[in-house]
Sequence to fold (247 residues):
Amino acid sequence: MKKALKIIAVLLVVTVGGAYGWFTYAEIQNRAAAGAPALTAIKSDAEVTASNDGWLIMQPTNGSPTTGVIVYPGAYCKIEGYAQIMRGVAAAGYLVVGINMPFGLSLMGVNSANSVKKAYPEINNWVLIGHSLGGAMAGTYIAQNPDAMDGLIFWDSYPAVSIKDVDIPTTHIHRATLEGEPPQIFSEQRQMYPENTAWSPVPGGIHMYFGTFDGGNYLELWEPKISNEAQLEIVTAATLEGIARAE
Fold:
């Protein structure tokens, strides 16, 4: 019996170690690191106070925000890559908290929003944002906790499970053709979103321009028709509109 238990213990260690090694390798190979413009945005000044110690946190230097925004990143995307949008939202008067997920995968941290909310009990309203896989997991979180958030924003994503009956203001900001049409996959999944979802196109935009990234292996549907900077400006404005709907 003791020998059998030892064998089982060894197999468990090997299995867990192998899985850890595989996830770590996959994260390194597919990592979309923050680009230089995004890293430059992570600074404190008279307008925004920034910190990056576990969570990437940005908030207005003056005033006390009553609405908080939580950001779930796309697969293998470093949260710092979204710093330019996060800074723009913080400058508008909001607390913004970005989560770097275990192994770069939001499916490993679906309930991360709970820890953020606990850390900021003074915040009255919360909005959850997710990009790509982060959006899918944000949808999963809302499906499991329909009363936990006051608003939900998808950045070029769709929920992993149906949340059509969730009654909170929802916004979908998505890449689009120059005519404003979303990718087919989003149209096909329209029934997964709440009926009140506001669709906000980024004509000519692409998936990875929802941040500023170096690396990553995402295969885009089309070449960008606008600059990364221009898309970030559009997404920031649309995000602020989405947040306002939740207040």
